[in-house]
Amino acid sequence: MILGRLSMGEMIMFLIPSSLLFYFFFRMIKSSKEKPLPPGPYPWPIVGNLFQMRKKAHIRLAEMAQVHGPLISLRLGQRIVIVGSSSAAASEILKTHDHVLSGRHVPVLLRDKESTVHNMNLAFTSETGDGWRKIRNLYTSQIFSSKALESRANMRLEKVMEMVKYIASKSGENISIKDVMLVTATNIMGNISLSMDLVDFEGNGIGAKINDALRRFSSLGAQPQLADLYPIFGRWDIQSWKKKFMQIVEQELGTIWEDILKRKKNGRNISTDKKDFTDILIDKGCTHQQVNALMQELFSAGTESMGSTTEWLVAELLRNQEIMKKVSDEVRKKIDGNVVKESDLVHFPFLEACLKETLRLHPPGPLLLPHRATQTCEVMGYTIPKDSLILVNMWAIGRDPSIWDDPLSFKPERFMGSKLSYKGKDFEYLPFGAGRRMCPGEALASKTILTVVASLILNFDWFLVDNMNPEDINMEEVLDVAMHKKEPLHVTLKLREQLKLKSWYLYLLLKAGVGLFSRYFNYLGGVGILIKVDYFFARSMCICNGLDNIAGKVIREATILTAVVEISLSLFNFWAANERLRLQLLGYFNHGGGVLLKFLGHSQLGVGV
Ligand code: HEM
Questions:
Q1: Atom of ligand 1 nearest to the CA of 143
Q2: How close is the Cα of 398 to the center of ligand 1, in Å?
Q3: DSSP string, 156-217
Q4: What are the two backbone dihedrals, phi and then psi, of residue 103, each rounded to the nearest 5 degrees?
Q5: Ligand 1 centroid to residue 522 C-alpha, Å
Q6: How far is CA 89 from the centre of its chain?
Q7: Which candidate in 30, 290, 444, 590 could, as Cys together with 286 as Cys, close a disulfide (CB 3.0–4.6 Å)?
Q8: In the predicted model, is pLDDT for residue 521 greater than 60?
Q9: 8 A C-beta contact, residue 355 and residue 432
Q10: Which stretch of DSSP H or E encloses residue 389?
């Protein structure tokens, strides 16, 4: 009634304040129900907590967690960042709420209208939807499943033995462990995806260019971008980094992949050769752009992580001589010869414990890769707003004194007999992450690193350069895209004397045996055995000098053949005790090398020791 008597102006004057009142009233009720953001340091206007951060973000965030608790929130510019720093927080993020927190924060550098990386590979696909699942399944079936890994075990062994051969040729000289490992990892990835080696140990080959471009690509990607902190600047490339970045992605790397693919296409018969990963991608109708994006991902995710983990592991073993001795005993007692196969790794539980301990102290991804909340959700009683950036501080969890006894010491024994694995099931130990976004390369990486380190232990004695004291190894770390050693580790690997001597002793022993045998029975059988011994000797020398396995194999086959010839000759000799027949037989059996053998047969030279 009263409203009916009011004029239009009076009605507006009444409605505006009352609707505002209602609005604030309902907001108050709603916000009293809504949980707060996780606690954290006070954010300053505009900049938020930017000035409280430093270069080693994992260390600074661990310090903040000490003050504010295991789940904290920060504001970096306009962006909300949530950090979990305990195993309980990791389990909430990567297991309980994995379905909404497994989005990816895609840095502006990678976002482009014409997608070249973003949403074309696994790591930088923003949501774990169908497109992401398809790529993940393709990766698993073609590269990372047990069957796919098994089918390429020989190729990996060949690459590891090429590394052993190269280091043997540099026996006694200084080498950088990481550089050597990067070559091996690059060629392993090259053979998986393109059926070819891409670089040699002297740094020649297209792989060197790829690694250089990836290094620049990663170091640009690791710089804080204004537009990531203030989305309002997203339209402009104020720092001109995006232009530089796209130049590396499209012009440098893009051209390299295109060239390799063209060369590969011209150089092989796809219908008969075994298909590699790029063949499968092309068969599946992937565009060249997508092939490029996946190649970039495989090489950048696979090479640096394996290189730096191997370097940390070697550095820890050199610093801890007692542990080194235990690992050496484990490996050297078990393996006869110079080759470690992946199937031998089950016999090296202590070496595996050393790798686990290395990844606990020096995880290449100390904060995993940044996740993104695809919806607002509630974690541990706090609100996580949509599009917040989510980090899990693996580095802090790996050093948490409530989980690990004496957490800063390198003690691989803690993993012996423990069920802790890096398979993403134990939230106190997650060097490869967990849940949907867990690293798919875990098995490939662990097998390769363990085979490499076991082979280096088996074939070489390790020394620090310039008689450096092991305690003086600089273990300082740097975090850009991955965490790596600040100072490269240079070591001197000397071919093991024992291996050299062992083959000499065996050679002499066998020759002595042959001498005796031939005196008592007949000289011709002795000649045959002598050849066998010489083959054995040649093979041992191959081993000692790190010559590839194939050379060893050929020599082994030849040895077996000679043994057959030699036994036949001996049998004939018992029967044909006359000199003329013997010489005739010599002619039959040793057609090619007949002259030499006749000479040996007549003169009886070389039969005794
Ligand atoms: C020691 C070696 C390695 C370590 C410690 C490692 C660790 C990690 C970590 C922590 C993540 C992020 C997980 C997350 O965001 O929750 C990741 C993701 C990934 N890694 Fe690895 N990685 C290693 C080797 C490899 C290798 C050899 C490959 C491939 C050849 C690979 C391919 C990937 C890919 C494609 C992703 C993205 C997965 C996704 O977003 O769905 N990694 N890795």
A1: 30
A2: 18
A3: HHHHHHHHHHHHHHTTTSEEEHHHHHHHHHHHHHHHHHHSS----TTS-SHHHHHHHHHHHH
A4: -70, 165
A5: 64
A6: 27
A7: 290
A8: no
A9: no
A10: strand 389-392
Distance CA 127, CA 100 (A): 9
How far apart CA 178 and CA 588 sit, in angstroms, is 55
Listed in sequence order, the DSSP H helices in 34-152 are: 57-68, 87-91, 98-101, 130-139, 146-151
pLDDT of 91 higher than 50: yes
Q: Which of these ranges, 31-40, 92-101, 135-144, 477-486, has the smallest mean pLDDT?
A: 31-40
Report residue 600's pLDDT band, with 50, 70 and 90 as the boundaries: very low
How would you classify residue 77: left for phi > 0, otherwise alpha for psi between -120 and 50, otherwise beta? left
Q: What is the predicted pLDDT for the residue at 479?
A: 86
- pTM (2 decimals)? 0.80
Give the mean pLDDT of 376-381. Answer: 96
- Alpha carbon distance 462, 332 (integer Å): 14
As a three-state string, the secondary structure of 140-169 is: HHHHHCHHHHHHCHHHHHHHHHHHHHHHHH
* pLDDT at position 360 over 70: yes
Angle between helices 177-194 and 254-267 (to 10 degrees): 50
Residues with CB under 6 A from ligand 1: 122-123, 297-298, 301-302, 305-306, 309, 363-365, 368-369, 431-433, 437-441, 444-445
* ipTM of the shown complex: 0.98
63 confidence band (pLDDT: 50, 70, 90): very high
Q: How far apart are CA 530 and CA 536, in angstroms?
A: 10
Q: What value does the CA radius of gyration of the chain take, rounded to a whole number of Å?
A: 32
Decide: residue 597, CB within 10 A, 0-12 exposed, 13-18 middle, 19+ buried. buried
pLDDT for 581 equals: 59
* Best residue among 427, 439, 446 to mutate for probing ligand 1, ranked by most atoms within 8 Å of CB: 439
Per the DSSP assignment, residues forming a β-bridge with 460 are: 495
How far, in Å, are 76, 293, 355 from residue 479 at the CA level? 18, 24, 20
Residue 116's pLDDT band (cuts 50, 70, 90): low
